[in-house]
Give the backbone structure.
Amino acid sequence: MKTKAKPLFGKIWIIGALLFMSMISWMLYDILQREGAIGRYDDIIVMGTNAGFKPFEYKNGNEIVGFDVDIAKEIAKKTNKTLKIEDMSFDGLLPALNSGQVDMVIAGMSVTPEREKNALFSKSYYSAAQRMIIKKGSSIKNKYQLEGKKIGVQLGTTGDTLASKIKGAHIAQFPTAPSVLTELNAGGVDVAILDNAPAEQYTTGFKELIVLPGSLSNEDYAIAIKLGNNKLLEQINQVIDEMKQDGRYKKLIKKYFGNDTISLQGEEK
Ligand code: ARG
């Protein structure tokens, strides 16, 4: 009897300790997850963006909508997750991706070699260009007249980088694309450099502003994902491919640009 009772007691003790330990670690895991310290609940996918960039992301009342949001919805559907959108400053997007605050950045973000050091980029979903915007009556007619001028840009964008390389230029950085145009309209800068589509859309709100013909660059918009997150990258690329093949992409172009001939990638133009 004595020899049998001892191992049984020992077993119960071990089982109890294991149960207790797993309960504690489960509770700890739950708390850390709620606090955002170790990723989020598995059923949510977070898109980081900077809403103020028509037609890609902008506010409609309190809701953030746009071309990029519609793509994000397709990605959420594909990955079986609920989409959550975090609106933040454009220059904070890649840091938010790296800290795990967001899962993907969809913000009309152009692929650049510099950014590729800090993030993975999906296949391109839109071809864009930097354009100059002036106020009626301005003496600036082309890119050769930018030297020494006061140039308005959105902070941290490719337009910002491009402007900073122009000799003697004074760069004024603004938090959003529309705020650059407000400043241009008020005469605070001589010229603005912005992406073509938002430039076209926002200038319609200002009678005096004109988008000059001629591009300063050719760029590709793509979705940024954290380095190492190859599984999500693959899923996103698949969504982009499928959307282009089955007509959903064409529908989006029509919905946001009014025709289906603009920047159709990998398809007949
Ligand atoms: N395409 C430019 C870039 O990648 C500007 C993007 C700005 N996007 C935005 N949502 N405000 O730098």
User: Anything to note?
Assistant: The chain has nine helices and twelve strands.
